[in-house]
């Protein structure tokens, strides 16, 4: 068995070693990035005069062939292909012969894998951000078409005050806007090229990390070769961003689960985005929403797992770092799937606007407005709270409608009773960022503008 290091070794690797240490099964997906990084490296070698033009062209041609073989599913991996870097270099050497043997000059898999993974992360987070924008856009469309639809707002999952449905939907939209921000900030910090750091210390050959960084479209080359090959902050940050994004999706999911229940009845799922039961013919289940809620366990696990892997590692590269890839790939995949599924679910669900309004029209949801009515007349809020609280208790104990007590009360009367009319309370929320029609109209405009700006920011990195 021929390995990248067979020159120094008398015997080939044990099967158990290969089985335990090989990463090809999961790092194959870095093949395109590995080829891009290899192209940049070859150009750097040629520019430094380390590779003559003929050899450089031969290696670049072989890299093109490898790329085509991979793209067409014709690339044949062999048992000694321990990881994607080994596989690509092995094939280049088969194709380009003597010139291929020069590809790894001044390079180590340590700077190579860090470069590949940064290229992947930059692209993958850009794609995730694009999917977040799509979900935000669906929330915006649903919010715009929701018009004056209102529903109870909750604290402690107890009905509190009515809010516009648009307001509720955009609350999730703003959380996602912070996710987009975070993803872009992580991409900016990941945008540093480790290529040229070698195994850990740089090179005796006249390589120029700034040149290869530019070739790969990185914002800058590394400052310190030890840091370049051992830094996985960008993976930890990506995992945090994805975990928190997942937490946000879990909150959306939980509300869909509640709202689609018979007890709430606020929302009906489209058939294409709900599932049936194998036993109970009447069931229509919100499995997408449940999985959006449930996937967060592994997302948080991936973050915690990587942090533990990184903790206490001595400089510089250690094989432990190979454990960075699977959590990252899985987190990206799962969040991307969840975003697409939730976008479809929310885009096609039917809101039961009359059920929502009926639930929100309980006079109890307007008691704060009654207290504030008394405040407008000069009464201190604490006192007003007590007065209205007394009426609520009375109404419950004597089983009389609250509105009757309000009408009969000397400091309240008909004007205050009108506040209990269906649909009135939500219109009373007029302050900036509040839940009523006037501030929500402004909020919709601000959200639309923000989405437009973020779309440009994401386009710039994808
Ligand atoms: N498969 C390895 C990883 O993912 C590549 C780097 C291996 N480097 C080494 N010196 N063994 O980290």
Describe this structure in words.
The chain has helices at 15-21, 24-27, 31-47, 53-71, 84-96, 109-146, 165-190, 209-215, 225-230, 233-259, 287-294, 296-310, 325-348, 353-360, 367-376, 381-398, 402-408, 414-417, 424-427, 437-461; strands at residues 150-155, 158-164, 192-193, 220-221, 267-268, 350-351. It is mostly helical and 462 residues long. It folds into three domains: 13-105, Orthogonal Bundle (Fumarase C, Chain B, domain 1), CATH 1.10.275; 110-358 and 442-461, Fumarase C, Chain A, domain 2 (Up-down Bundle), CATH 1.20.200.10; 362-421, Ribonucleotide Reductase Protein R1, domain 1. The strands form three sheets. A two-stranded antiparallel sheet has the order 1-2. Helix 8 links the parallel strand 3 (192-193) and strand 4. Helix 3 (31-47) packs across helix 8, helix 7 runs antiparallel to helix 10 and helix 15 packs across helix 16. The longest helix is centred in the first third of the chain and has 38 residues, at 109-146. It is elongated, with a radius of gyration of 30 Å. The structure holds arginine. Residues 23, 27, 83, 109-110, 113, 317, 319, 321-322 line the site of arginine.
